[in-house]
């Protein structure tokens, strides 16, 4: 089967719409820069397909037409490293997650055009003694967890035997536990499908992160961060 590749104009637009930065919010690295030759530049970015360009590829969607597969709506701009990751771990890097990355990256680029500086971390006073907290509000938990661990917050993993606890089996709990997110504290089966997760830093601070939203993988629905707070819980 022939590949439904992007045109040069689509690739160029994907890169420019995110200011040539990787769309993975945990990366956000620059993908273009100067070459030693004054008239040339170096490109480390990739116009990646959200759903594969051909049958058998990552996240292939047979319901799309060739034109839809090759359209800008099916593309996301990534650095070469992240492009390799998203095509190597399909369970983690879903269509829904990649589309969220794309929307977030384009919104960030638009704010930057207006001079609205968007730091990656919440502000904290000089007297604060804790690892900086990245901006995780509204993010899918997978994405927020990646940002937290990259910043220096470590998951407070529980023993594997806790996987049979009722507060793990309820709601979204089993979904996250089976992914290896053993920092899960509690999961609720009703209402907003709330879950809480525990982290700690090198200063001994304990951070609890709360998510809401039911995980329905076949619909691309997932849980998003709604709250986070320090705790003295042992």
In short:
The chain is an alpha+beta fold and 234 residues long. The chain folds into two domains: 8-113, no CATH class; 141-231, no CATH class. The protein has helices at 8-17, 66-69, 80-86, 95-113, 141-151, 166-169, 173-178; strands at residues 32-34, 41-43, 45-49, 75-79, 154-155, 184-187, 195-200, 206-212, 224-231.
The largest sheet, given as strand count, sense and whether it forms a barrel, is: 5 strands, antiparallel
Distance N terminus to C terminus? 57 Å
Helical residue percent band: 25-40%
Shape: globular
How many distinct domains?
Answer: 2
Radius of gyration: 20 Å
**What is the residue-mean pLDDT, rounded to a whole number?**
90
The SSE string, one letter per element, is: HEEEHEHHHEHHEEEE
Summed up, the helix count is 7
Total beta strand runs: 9
Q: What structural class results from the helix and strand content?
A: alpha+beta
Point out poorly predicted stretches.
Answer: none
Our estimate of the beta-strand percent is 15-25%
């Amino acid at each position: 089967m022939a590949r439904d590749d992007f045109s040069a104009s689509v690739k160029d637009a994907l890169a420019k719409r995110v200011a040539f930065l990787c769309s993975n919010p945990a990366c956000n690295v620059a993908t273009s820069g100067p070459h030693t030759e004054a008239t040339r530049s170096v490109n480390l970015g990739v116009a990646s397909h959200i759903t594969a360009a051909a049958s058998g590829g990552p996240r292939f969607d047979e319901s799309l037409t060739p034109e839809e597969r090759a359209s800008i709506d099916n593309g996301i701009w990534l650095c070469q490293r992240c492009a390799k990751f998203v095509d190597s771990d399909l369970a983690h890097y879903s269509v829904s997650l990649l589309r969220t990355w794309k929307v977030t990256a384009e919104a960030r680029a638009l704010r930057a055009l207006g001079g609205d500086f968007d730091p990656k971390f919440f502000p904290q006073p000089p007297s604060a003694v804790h690892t900086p907290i990245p901006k995780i509000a509204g993010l899918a938990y997978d994405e927020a967890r990646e940002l937290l661990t990259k910043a220096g917050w470590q998951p407070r993993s529980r023993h594997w035997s806790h996987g049979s606890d009722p507060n793990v089996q309820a709601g979204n709990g089993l979904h996250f536990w089976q992914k290896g997110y053993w920092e899960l504290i509690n999961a609720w089966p009703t209402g907003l499908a709330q879950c809480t997760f525990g982290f700690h830093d090198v200063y001994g601070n304990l951070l609890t992160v709360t998510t809401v939203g039911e995980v329905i993988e076949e619909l691309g629905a997932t849980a998003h961060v709604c709250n986070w707070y320090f705790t003295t819980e042992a």
